[in-house]
Amino acid sequence: MTEMNENPLDLLPEVLLAASAVLGLLLGSWLPRARQWVVGLLAVVACVAGIVAASVAATEPSTTAFGEAFAVDPVTGASRIVVLGGTLLVLGVSFRPLRGDPRESEFYVLVQLAALGALMMAGTQDLLLFAAAYLLASIPAYTLAGFRKDGPGTEAALKFYVVGALLGVLLLAGVTVLYAAGRATLYPMLGDALRDAPEPLVAVGAIGLLAGVLFKAGGVPAHFWVPDAVQGSSAPVAALLTTLPKIGALAALFRVGDDVFAGSPLPWPALIAVLAAASMTLGNLGAFFQQDVKRLLAYSTISQVGYLLMPVAVVDRSDLAQQAFLYYLAAYTVTNLGAFAVVCALPQAHTLDDYRGLARDRPLLAASLVVCLLGLVGTPPTAVFLGKLQAFSAVFDGGYAWLAVLAAVNTVASLFYYLRWIVPVVSRGASPGLAEGDRTARVVAYAATVVSVGLGLAGGPVLDALAGPMSP
Amino acid sequence: MIRLLTALVFAPTAVALLLFALPRRTAPAVFRAVWVAASAVELALVVVVWAGYEPGGGMQFEERARWIPGAGVSYHVGVDGLSLPLLALTCLLFLACALYSLRENRRIREFAALFLFLQTTCLGLFVALDLILFFVFFDLSIVAMYFVIAGWGHRQAARAALKFFLYTFIGSLALLLGFIGLYLAASPHTFDIVELTEQNPLAGRSVYGALVLLAVVVGLAVKTPTVPFHTWLPPAHVEAPAAGSAILAGVLLKMGTYGFVRIAMPILPEAWREYALVLVVIGVVSVLHGALVALAQTDFKRMVAYTSVNHMGYIVLALGAAAATADSSEQARSLAVTGAVTQMVSHGLLTGALFLLAGVLHERGRTYDMGAYSGLAAVAPAFAAMTGVAAFASLGLPGFSGFVAEFQIFTGSLGPQPLATALSVLGIVLTAGLFLRALRQVFTGPLRLPDAPGTPRVFPDMRGHESLSVAPLLVLAVVLGVAPRFLLDVVEPASRSVLELLAR
Predict the structure, then answer these.
(1) N or C: which end of chain A has fewer CB within 10 A?
(2) B300 vs A3, A215, B131, B306, B359, CA distance in Å?
(3) Measured at the alpha carbon of residue A210, what is the angle toward residues A209 and A215, in degrees to the nearest 5?
(4) Residue ranges of the domains in chain B?
(5) Are B68 and A460 an interchain contact pair (Cβ–Cβ within 8 Å)?
(6) φ and ψ at B446, to 5 degrees?
(7) Hey, are the CB atoms on A423 and B150 less than 8 Å from each other?
(8) How far is Cα A442 from Cα A346, in angstroms, rounded to an integer?
(9) Chain A residues with CB-CB distance to B169 below 8 A
(10) DSSP B248
């Protein structure tokens, strides 16, 4: 192990976010209530600076920092940009509803800490650091879920917390067992050691680890918290819960699959493929007849995790997997946040019927919603289409053609419930729920829509940028 | 070099965006005028392309640009003898729809913009030489048509639109899976149609080839539609507005059959030859089923919709027969493929006209039920004449385009598939019967008009803009029937090259 790589500048985006969170907490204690927005501004600056730093770092060859505990490679680079970009969108939609709130600065700080946790999960190559990052991503999220202190919010936070605590304990147990089996916590060393480890021990450890990761990702079978937490919490928090932690957890799973379990005796690809199949199917079935838009989107995100798990399953079997995974991650994040931004822009509209006549009242917002929802289906030329194309190709290539077929069937099924939302939007009539609007969230929705389509049209260079080798 | 095809494809969408840039309060007449002008310019552009096209010169006006090289996708377009007639048909039909909609008042800006966007997707699909580009336009055409049906359709439109979307979307995903199968089989991996055609990547891999062909054929068969994937078609047509039906039947259905000759036959020749008999059977069943069900309809528009299933069946039959046996003469099989392409054009013209005429009927009497009308020839002679011409042309009377197409199909298919062809000829008899019955019911006898509350008691004859939209389609159908050489000169070399590719 080299001793020369303890350079904090390798972790500049993470350091910036942590510094901004701490500074924001201090600032928040001294600023008058009317000026607490400065903390939000600080967070925006930290995210933008982090994106710049991550982009610069991404142009350099892959490396590791602090021993081999943290990898700076395309997976980290892409996850950083996606997480920080997603955080920017979340901050954008929270700006209005939190303006003048007594706990405005706390909200921004918690958002940044949750994002920091996601960043650490994505970049780490050490199980212990991963466990710490898991907690860092979880605890602020519990608080955010119940931030409004109302009935549904409290229920959401409680359910989220109980499930999270249980699965977190399983995660820690899994880490311990894997340490016992492989006598290491660093992924590369663990990967070598697990080749000869007893299979039952590895299996128990892997299942514990999966429990925690799937909880964060919101995938079946650890998805039970998602609908309640998303419906119960406020719309900006729901946007955060369904994107940022997922990115970190899935990136970590991708890394673990490649470094740790690729050579182990476990049938890891088959296991992930089955989880992907279950997640996309059950998520879709749950979404079918939902009336509440947030709950519908919550189930939709569960099924999207299924699609995201497809390239994760074939990580070491197809050269297309990494590009497919990272591209889909970015495409999903921006499209999903676009849909949530529309929900945030219409705080009075809760059910599908409340969106009746939106196309007439606010044509641009309706167009954004339609593009984002059709984008989530995977209609070209939005980014998710290209992501799905890549993911399908990757699983085909990796020998899981049945998974691609199942995903295609699920895609058709998902069209049904997205259309159930689109139909009232474009049909005639008026709903009182559309009266009030949030201008900032509208702008965020437009921006996310443009990025979602633009990313799809300009997919060529982006895919090339995602293709570099992962750190050893 | 002028990028003529790119301009042709994307100009309508640019105009659509321009419509949204105009203030909301602009007079509807402005939107209509812009729409008609844009469609006329498109038609002029396609005439320029046709004039510059050299028959027998293979792929022309090609443009290729890097798009997503990492995924093997490029922006690659071009025209040959298979796509050029369909491009011309598309532009003509869209102009006809623009003219027909000159009295449309419901949200005309959105209506015009959707149609212009739809025109981009149709033209783009016919010039696409990359599977993903093809797929993008294929899917977007579904989305645009969904909004046309759902937004401007009749009472049950929402249901019909949903059914249309779900069915054709299933088809499009099957198609996507097939495309991915082709992509992975090729080395280097590519989605380029020209390169894939050269490579013939699935030669000698019969199981893989069969599965990919299955996915591609199912995807295209849903769109075409053939039995048993046709059930979305009647409700979609009945509920769609007249212009939407004309485009759906006239252009969108051709996407399926065009996919057969552009993708399935040249890229998967082995599998296509092996399973040609299945396609022949599907074709014959579609011919007979479409005709028989159409015979049972009392709803004029539904009847025309089912005759579409029948007419598309002839195309599938011809394409299957062209490959079914290698020992039949080259010339006969070439005739079958040429006939299939001619049938696409002919069906587009005639069914487009029939659906616009059905719109005229509905606009006057508020119903498509043929039993509610009688003796219309007395009050609306021009309407009766045009419907008569369209119906006779559609049933394949000599002197009209339908005859040229069906004659070639039957002559070409009789050698390789005598039984199937003989059965399909029955389809012509059935269509003749049903069209004659419909004409007798609606146009002869004592005058009777639907007397539902709110309908006017008079039946005005064709108005200027309606005649202007329908008449050119019928004139062209007659021209093609009498002097088809200008079309056949373009199609024949292309169909010969398809057969060469198929014989590999």
Answers:
(1) N
(2) 83, 57, 37, 10, 10
(3) 110
(4) 283-451+459-504
(5) yes
(6) -70, 150
(7) yes
(8) 9
(9) 412, 415
(10) I
**CB neighbour class for B398 (10 Å; exposed up to 12, middle 13-18, buried from 19):** exposed
Nearest residue of chain A to residue B72 (CA atoms): A460
Q: What SS3 string covers B56-77?
A: CCCCEEEEEEEEEHHHCEEEEE
The minimal CB distance from B68 to the residues A404, A412, A463 is found for A463
Q: Which of A362, A396, A400 to mutate to test the interface with B (most CBs of B within 10 A)?
A: A396
Confidence of residue A338 (pLDDT cuts 50, 70, 90): very high
Q: Encode B185-207 in three state secondary structure.
A: HCCCCCCEHHHHHHHCCCCCCHH
Structure-token match 């070598």, residue found: A192
Question: Inter-chain contact A460–B67, Cβ cutoff 8 Å?
Answer: yes
- Rounded to whole angstroms, how far apart are CA atoms A252 and B476? 63
Residues of B in contact with A450 (CB under 8 A): none
- DSSP-based three-state secondary structure for A71: strand
At A447, list the tokens. 């921006």
A411 and B173 within 8 Å at the Cβ level: the answer is yes
List CB contacts of B375: < 8 A, sequence separation 6 or more: B443, B444, B445, B446, B447, B448
Positive or negative: CA dihedral B340, B342, B345, B350: negative
Residue B456: band (very low, low, confident or very high) from pLDDT cuts 50, 70, 90: low
Q: What is the dihedral of CA B182, B183, B187, B189, to 10 degrees?
A: 170
Torsion region of A67: left, alpha or beta (phi above 0 gives left; psi -120 to 50 gives alpha): left
Domain locations in chain A as residue ranges: 289-472
Q: Residue B267 in contact with residue B330, Cβ under 8 Å?
A: no
A463: contact with B, CB 8 A cutoff: yes
Instruction: Identify the bridge partners of residue A186 per DSSP, sorted by sequence position.
Output: A126
Calpha distance B268→B206 (Å, rounded): 10
Helix H, strand E, coil C: the string for B252-296 is HHHHHHHHHHHHHHHHCHHHHHHCHHHHHHHHHHHHHHHHHHHHC
C-alpha triplet A165, A168, A171: angle, nearest 5°: 160
Per-residue exposure over B51-66, b if at least 16 CB sit within 10 Å of its own CB, e if not: eebebeeebbbeeeee
- Give the CA distances from residue A14 to residues A25, A76, A242, A469, A472, in Å, rounded to whole numbers and listed in that order: 17, 11, 21, 22, 21
Q: What span, in angstroms and rounded, lies between the C-alpha atoms of A85 and A48?
A: 8
Establish if A156 touches chain B: CB-CB under 8 angstroms: no
> What are the tens digits of pLDDT across the range A440-460?
999 999 999 999 999 998 888
Site from B173, B190, B211, B212 to mutate, A interface, most A CB atoms within 10 angstroms: B173
Tell me if residue A292 falls in helix, strand or coil: strand
Report which DSSP code applies to B78.
Answer: E
B222-258 tens-digit pLDDT: 998 898 888 999 999 999 999 999 999 999 999 999 9
* Beta-bridge partner residues of A224: none
Helices B157-185 and B131-152 pack at an angle, to 10 degrees, of: 180
Sequence-separated (6 or more) residues with CB below 8 Å from residue B157: B149, B150, B151, B239, B240
CA–CA dist B48, B37 (Å, integer): 16
ipTM of the complex: 0.84
Tokens of A282: 């059950």
Q: What is the CA radius of gyration of chain B?
A: 22
Give the residue from B89, B122, B123, B160 showing the smallest Cα distance to B5: B123
**ω into residue B228 within 30 of 0, thus cis?**
yes
* Residue A1 banded pLDDT, cuts 50, 70, 90: very low
Q: What is the DSSP letter of A361?
A: H
A285 Cβ contact list (under 8 Å, min separation 6) = none
